[in-house]
Structures are given as C-alpha cells and as structure tokens.
Design goal:
homodimer; 392 residues; alpha/beta; Rossmann fold; Dehydroquinate synthase-like, alpha domain; two-stranded antiparallel ribbon; 10 strands; 47% helix; globular
C-alpha cells in the first residue's frame, strides 16, 4: 500500500425528509448569506426548492437564487455565479441538485476568493481556499457530494476538465433517497453506471497487496449489481434507492481508493463524448468502460479474473484465466444493457467518423496518459474503435 | 435503512515514517501547547517518542509528558491528566499508543473544559466540547483513532464504561503500519479479534435491506481472515500490516455501520471479563463472541447463514440453513484458535464460579439490554456458561 492522506470532513445527513434541516446545517457551518444554486425547473416543480427555502427562512438565513445549471455544467454560468457572489457578499453556497449543480457550485466557490480566472484550477492549479458549500443531493451518481473534485466544460472549444482540492469538499451533504425516486429509469441507470465506473477506476491498479480496498470496491460493486435492477423495475423502492445512494458516496469520497494507483482514463475518454454530443456522462461510460477493459485486459489477466469471480460470479477457469477475465467483461456489458444503457456508438448517437476529433480534443498529442496501462493517442483511438461495434 | 448522520472529520495520515510529521499536523489543527500522552516504556525504548518529540520541537510546539497509561485505562490517571492540563494551559492532547492511550486522552480532553466530574460522560451524559486530540497509533485494534468513542475503567468497583461524542473524534490520526511490526503475536491477534468484533457488532442487525453496509462489513471480515494469519506467520509483513491497519479504522469510524441497528452486547459482556481479570479485550472477545453467536443464532438463522457462505466460504445447506449457520460460527472459533486466541474460560484464565459476579457487575439487574437480541441477566449468564467449555 502506498502512503496516503485521507480527509473527508463532510457531515452526511442521510434519510427521509432530511432536506427540511438544511437551514440548520447552513447555520451550523457558519453560513449567513447563501447562494442557492440549482439546475432545471424540476427542483421548483417538485416542491423541493420550496422546502429548502422554508428551512433557510426558518433560520433567518438570507439567500439569492441562481438556477439554470445544465448537465455537463458550463463555465459561463460559473462566471455569472462568481460575479453575483462578490456583488452580494455571499458566504455560503447551497447546491440543490446532482453532480452538475454541485460541480458548478464548487467552481464558483473557488472563484470568489481568487483574483485570477477560476479556469486556472481546471488547468492544473491547486486551490487554497473556497467559500463553504453544502449540498442537497437529488441524483445518486457523481459522488460530488462527498468528494473534493469538480468537472466543468469550457464553452470555447468544449473542453471538459477537472479540478481537485480539500477546500471544495462540502461542509455538509443531505442525502434523501426519496428525492431520487422520481428520476426516469434512464437517468437512474446513468447514475448507477457512473458509480460503478468510480469503483472500477480505483479497482484497476498496479499497486500490489491492497486486499482491503480491493474487497471494499467489490462490496460496492456487488451492491450496485443487486440494487440497480430493483430500482429500474420499481422506482419507488426506497431501500434499494438508499443502498445505491450511500454506495455512490462511499465509492467516490476515496475511502475505498486510498493507497493505490488509480486509473481515470475511461472517465477522460468518456468526457470527450459527453462534451461533443452532450450525452449523459453515465451513458458514455457504459460505452467506453467495457471497451477500455477489453483493450487493457492482457496487462493483468488475473486482476480481471479476480473481479469476474468475486463480483460477477464467474467460475474460475484455472487453465485459461483469460477466458474468465473476458467472461467478466461480457457480464458487465450485459448488465449495462439490461439496465437500459447504450453499449456502442450507434446506441449512444456517436459517430465513428468523429474519432479523430475525439482523440484530438483528448489532448495528449504525442504524449501519453498514465494509470493502470499508459495510453497514447493511437490507444485512445483503438478504444473508441472497439466501442463503435460493441455488442453483447 | 434508518436515517442517520455520519461525520468523520479526522485527517488520516497513513504510511511509512509518517509519525515524523506529527508536529506539522498539531500545528495545522491549532495546537500550541501539547500534553504528550503515552503508555508503557516501550514507546520510549523503541525510539518512537524521540521521533515524535523531535517533530514537535521542529514546529516550536511546547509539550509536557504524561505516560503510564495501562491497558483497560483507569480513571485515576485521567484525573491526573485533567489537573495537569488545567495547570499548564494545555490546548492539544497528542496520544501516542493504542486504544487505551487514545481513550484515556479522550477522557482527559472532555474533562478539561468541564466543571463537573468527567465520569458523568461515562454515565450517559453527552459531551459538548473537548480539547483537540491527535493520535500516533501503535496497535491496529480499537479503532479509537477514527471513532468518537472512549472506554475507561473506574477503579472503585472496577466499572468499565463507555462515552461517545463527535467532539472527541481526533483531529488527525497518524497510522504507520511499521509501528505495529514489533507487536508480539498474541497482541497482534488480540487486535485482529477486536477489529472483527467491531464488524460483527454492526453486522448482526434487525434492520432489513442494508445490502451496502452488509457487503462492506463482509469485505472487512474477508480482509482480516486473509491478512491476520500472514502477520502472525511473518510479523514484518508490511503489506498485510497495512491492510489490517486500514481495515481497523474503517471497521470502527462507522462508515460500515450507519443506518442500521447495531448490537454491542458481546463487547459489554466481555468488558466484565477484562475488568475482573485484566485480560486483553481482544482475548475476552474471542471467548465471548462465538458463544454469544451460538446463543442468539436462532433469532435470524439466514443472517448467520449469509455470513457463513459469503465470509467463511461455507456451502449453503438449502434444506437445513441452521447447519450452515452453525458451520460459520465453528469456522470463526477455529480461526480464532488458529491465530492463538483463547476460546474458553480456562484458556482465558476465567472461572465459572465468577459468573454470578460477572452478571452482577454487568449491571442490568431485572432489566434487559437491547440490540439484535434483547438479553436479560439469565441470558448473560447462559452466554458465559457456553464460553466456559467452548471447544473447536
């Protein structure tokens, strides 16, 4: 195991009706004037925003609204939010929504106390301070409610890039599984795929002897495999929604990924798809991740055989372990198909002819990207090519 | 899943040589004058205390030493520590040792800002504030490095009682697996048993549909079953030590126990043994926990069959699930025996004739204690009786 620091100081407030307590937690963590940040009108229509504002009013907390965050959140709204916060002396951002809203809130939070362009933090600069953030989560997917990460798309060139820092970990996150029951099946499945990808990106590692985090990753995958089909079949299954929501947080606050090299190339390769086609991130991952697995499998067949047997219930083929490894990938793709995810370019609405452009915007030029297997531009192209015709 | 809050704001600093950074972390979390709290002379002899004090000096942090914490830490040293902290205007307690030292530090930390007797917190009162605490952990066992719990023994009557509160969660905990390599095999095994007990006390629940925490508990148990025999066979196996150390923290900061009813009766029943005989807590648990399992198994045979198949690798007996359940408990006891733990009263040095006294000091009188199965005084006596002659 490699040396590491793990620091997840977010207070998680989990369960039915907990959004009615958000004012109390804003108060607890020192907020006096809040930017209430959200996405589409659905938060308004559902009554959620009313409950949130009632809770803020109950604590005599002032707030200003900034809605309109779109999936794959853009930099233009971030700039607007930063300006608004400075003008109104906002000291706390409350994000009500999914990963896109929370990521946008994090970008604004970093931008307010910073004199330069907030995009610097999405170009490699480490943030040192940020406004305090709280969240009321409405989709189990991104894990942004418990992470120190944010992904924003720059409209100029449609560049999708990430930033990280402990200062953007939320002070509190309210997780009420009831709020996810109204999600359409497709979005539910996209969220589940994103969660599984967060686990796999940690699972495939060159670090040896990391049994505890291997087993914890497998535990979360087994949970997702059991619970996801149940919520697709019955959207109001609270118990299954609750298991998925907690799994989504644990999968990405990094308690199961510490001390091991990770591989985030599937996320990166997918980001080009959602940036170009504005598809759901989870849907893009369903197309890319099994294709990436097929391409890199021979780097460590036994690790793929391990997940096939421990997670996918395959019988180990001791004379031909690569058959077991392949069977595991096949079952992953079958699972994704069964929950309604696209598994190839056609189903996603992507075009083979765009591959050169996708590889170009991936942006490694003549270089390579690290992780479990180092990849060059032609490897990225080959992974997209596998994804073109992938089938079960 | 039940509603819950989860708040674990400790910064975990994990890996080789990390104790040399303790001064930096005391500084980061606002400490200026430190009570350096430790146990026996082994921390001195090994050079660990020298490294810690060097690190404090490097940051110009004043400190005063208070050693002498014994296993099953006593209230008398806590009173001494509180007095010393008040007299010397201490603002930070650095605990260097295992669970006993950390628990003693937590008791002192609560006692300093409190006008009454610190024992109030061990008699049901909730603490509101405490001095800041940091830890340098030397034994993977109690999980106190990441928990808001503390257990202290009151010398008058040898009462062993617990206190809980978020304010006594350490600000930082340094976990260097190298420091555990010099532990004798017996203490290593006691620690492993304590970790497994922390998982089982969460696992046996009446809360339905808690797949994610079930699976996470199983992941930690599987890790302990793999790694413990390796460190007993080779004390210097760093990788195995590291896996156990992280598992020990995750097992007890409650991330795997949230949203479910838990059962801490085995811990309570054991505490009477270690209070009376001053035996190691882990050794007492090895005697008590499988006996408790045998006694309560029929309350939920399928839950015991689940752990038997998922964790102990038993084949499910579908026509007689109780046979599978029993086989799981048997394998647990065999495992404990294989790592050198006592499994009955004789091996522990306990006496059957003391059972009435043990039951009396357990202190429920005519009442009962809650959890997975509610127990009355005669149930406690019956569990001790099973433990008298237990065998593999």
């Amino acid at each position: 195991m490699e040396n590491f620091n793990f620091y997840s100081p977010t207070e998680f407030v989990f369960g039915k009706d907990r959004e009615n307590e958000c004012g109390k937690y804003v108060h607890k963590f020192g907020g006096t004037k809040v930017l209430l940040h959200y996405g589409s009108s659905s938060a308004k229509k559902s009554g959620l925003l009313d409950r949130v504002t009632q809770s803020l009013k109950k604590e005599n907390i002032e707030f200003i609204e900034l809605g309109g965050v779109q999936p794959n959140p853009h930099d233009s709204l971030v700039y607007k939010g930063i300006e608004l916060c400075k003008k109104e002396n906002i000291d706390f951002i409350l994000a009500v929504g999914g990963g896109s809203v929370i990521d946008s809130a994090k970008a604004i939070a970093m931008g307010v106390p910073y004199e330069g362009d907030f995009w610097d933090f999405y170009s490699g600069k480490k943030p040192k301070e940020a406004l305090s953030i709280g969240t009321v989560l409405t989709i189990a997917a991104a894990g942004s409610e418990g992470s120190g990460d944010s992904v924003i798309t720059k409209e100029e060139g449609m560049l999708k890039r990430g930033a990280s820092g402990d200062c953007i970990r939320p002070k509190f996150s309210i997780l009420n599984p009831q709020l996810t029951c109204t999600l359409p099946a497709y979005q539910t499945a996209c969220g589940a795929t994103d969660i599984m990808a967060h686990i796999f990106e940690r699972y495939f590692t060159n670090t040896q002897e990391v049994e505890v985090t291997d087993r914890l990753c497998e535990a979360l995958l087994l949970t997702m495999i059991k619970e996801t089909p149940r919520v697709i079949a019955d959207p109001n299954n609270y118990a299954a929604r609750a298991n998925i929501m907690w799994a989504g947080m644990v999968a990405h606050n990094n308690i199961v990924g510490v001390g091991r090299e990770q591989d985030w190339n599937s996320h990166g390769i997918e980001h080009e798809l959602s940036a170009l086609y504005d598809c759901a991130h989870g849907a893009g991952l369903a197309v890319i991740m099994p294709s990436w697995m097929e391409y890199v499998m021979h780097h460590d067949v036994m690790r793929f055989a391990q997940v096939a047997t421990r997670v996918w219930g395959c019988q180990m083929n001791f004379s031909q372990p690569e058959e077991t490894a392949k069977e595991g990938i096949k079952r992953f793709r079958q699972f994704l198909h069964s929950i309604g995810m696209p598994i190839n370019f056609k189903e996603l609405g992507a075009k083979e002819s765009d591959i050169p452009q996708l590889v170009k915007t991936f942006g490694i030029g003549e270089g390579e990207t690290g992780g479990f297997v180092h990849l060059k531009a032609n490897d990225i192209a080959n992974i997209y090519k596998i994804a073109v015709d992938a089938s079960i």
